[in-house]
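Quick one, T. Sequence first:
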Amino acid sequence: MSVTRNASTRWTGGLQDGGGVTSFLSSGLPDTPVTWASRANEPEGKTSPEELIGAAHASCYSMAFAAGLGKAGYTAEEIVTEAAVDFKPGTGITGIALTVRAVIPGIEKDEFEQIAAATKDGCPVSQALKAVPISLEATLG
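Structure tokens:
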């Protein structure tokens, strides 16, 4: 069965002087302001498409990693994933750096690294973002 999640952004004004509000229609999370300045400069309390992609990628990777560990017979005490999405105005998204730190009782470093790498390639958000270089730094413990 397929599941659909919805979000919207209402934008007013031009690119440089305008702004918008992103609404998370499915979850009801708080509306979040977005501007070009928050995308190309400092966030100043506003989000950007790249931050939203990073949030999606970090949460997806953590879930997929937990699933991969479970298939191998492990349960993580903790998985912390950060996704740093690089954006260059005029070019676009130039890369995503995933950093994961996990505490997993009983796993050996080699198996941890194999499952982490397989997760980077197999997570659904990674699959959707295949056109962008994705790197991974995985730390056990």
